[in-house]
Structure formats: C-alpha cells, structure tokens
Specification:
It is a single chain. With about 280 residues, the protein is an alpha+beta fold. The strands form two sheets. Strands 4-5-3-6 form a four-stranded antiparallel β-sheet, sandwiched between helices. The chain has a two-stranded antiparallel ribbon with strand order 1-2. The protein is globular, with a radius of gyration of 27 Å. The two termini are about 50 Å apart.
Length: about 280
Amino acid sequence: MGLPGRGSLVFHPPRGGVEAGMWVSHNVKVRDCLASTSVTLKRCLKLGVTMAKSKFEYVRDFETDDTCLPHCWVVVRLDGRNFHRFSEKHSFAKPNDIRALHLMTKCAQTVMEELEDIVIAYGQSDEYSFVFKRKSNWFKRRASKFMTHVASQFASSYVFYWRDYFEDQPLLYPPGFDGRVVVYPNNQTLKDYLSWRQADCHINNLYNTVFWALVQQSGLTPAQAQERLQVDEVTTKEVKLPAEMEGKKMAVTRTRTKPVPLHCDIIGDAFWKEHSEILDEDS
C-alpha cells in the first residue's frame, strides 16, 4: 500500500511478530509505518484472521489425499493435447518429423536434469513417460505434485527450445500436454508397462509409414489410405535383440547421472541386464 507523499510501504504478512516481514523506504517515518501496520492488523482481525490460523482454514479439509503408495514405481505419462492439429499447423514432416522428435527428447532431458528422482524416461511421437524411484519421497509422493511439475517443466521447455529445432517455423500458439500418474508395484509390471509403450510405438510407426507412403507415393487420399489399411485384429510379437547387442556394458556414475537419449529395444531382457541399476532395490 502507498502512503501519499511519504514513499511506499511493502508489507508481507507477519510471521512470529508484528515486526517481521516489514520493509520501509528511507523517507517513510517509523511512526507512520507502525500506525499503518496497526490499521492493517485491526482490519484483518475484523475479518476473523489471527496470526497463524483463520476461520477460513477449514477449506483445506476439501483437499483430496493423493499420496502414491510407498515402495512402488511412480510413472508420469504426458501426451500432447490435440497434437494432430498442432503438427498440421506447424507443417510437421510425415510420417516422422525428426525436428519434433529431437525437441521432445530435449524436453525430456531437461525434465530429468531438473527432477533428479527420475531414473528413466521413454518417449514416442507426442508422448513421454517418466519413471520416479521406488523410494522417492519427492513432495511426500503426492501424485498432483509429480504430474504438475513434470507437465509444466516439459511444456515450458518445449516453447523455450522450439527455435533450436524449428529455425524457420515460428511457434504459432503454445502447445499443451495432459498427464496421468500410474503406480506400479514391482519391477516386472514396470518393465511390462515400458514394453507396452514400445510395442505401441512399433505398431503406430509401421502403420503411419505405410499410410503416408500410400498418400505421398501412391496418390491415395487419406480416407482411401485408411480404408486400405483397415484390419480386424492386431497381434504383437516379442522382439528379439540382435546377438551383437548382448553383453554390452556401460559405465554409470552414481552421484549425478546425465540423461542420455537411447534408441534401443526395451522389450527384451538385454537392456535391463545392461542397465540393472534402474530397477535396483535401493532406487
């Protein structure tokens, strides 16, 4: 609040005493400051406000307890909101725009650098999954905190790094990402979740590659290409890693690791054997 002709007074709600949290400019008399402070406190008391609590504090009882179960893997999965339209408006190359994919990976790396309790992240297209340590007590394991921090950091990074990957394409409007939190009780269910996402990636990528080949090379309309590719059932087969991938080792720093993008199979066992520290019971 301002005092005419006397400079300005910035008053923060006091903590532990009337004197706390009060900043006064050099040309405001102490007498005026104390008088103004007294008036402010009297107004607060008339509204039912006390130093530490108030009659309005009951509204906190309406907050839902969203604590994630202990000793479980917490996964936050983000999805681009209406990215089909977003990709069209920004002229993404079909079926895959390498700029967009690299931008998504950069955003995921930024999230992992900021939130160190994330041990692994997997992404495809306009989605990314982030896995938090089983023993993470970050923000008391509140699901809303996990989701909102990951989503906000990812979305802001997408806008911040856009020009690094789309130099000639201006960002026409800000992108949006929705998120969900899922808890997995053991290592096998977590591995199955990540395998499910990679199998989905393979299926979608195969479909999109053929779909756009029919449109771009065969001259079919999108509707004709979609009709040509309609199937009644989709089966998923286990993917085996090449023999040369077996037995690889990688040095891992336990103090502070740097997120590194990998393009590899996570459905088979070789990846998990090579990076056994991800599922370590101490995580």
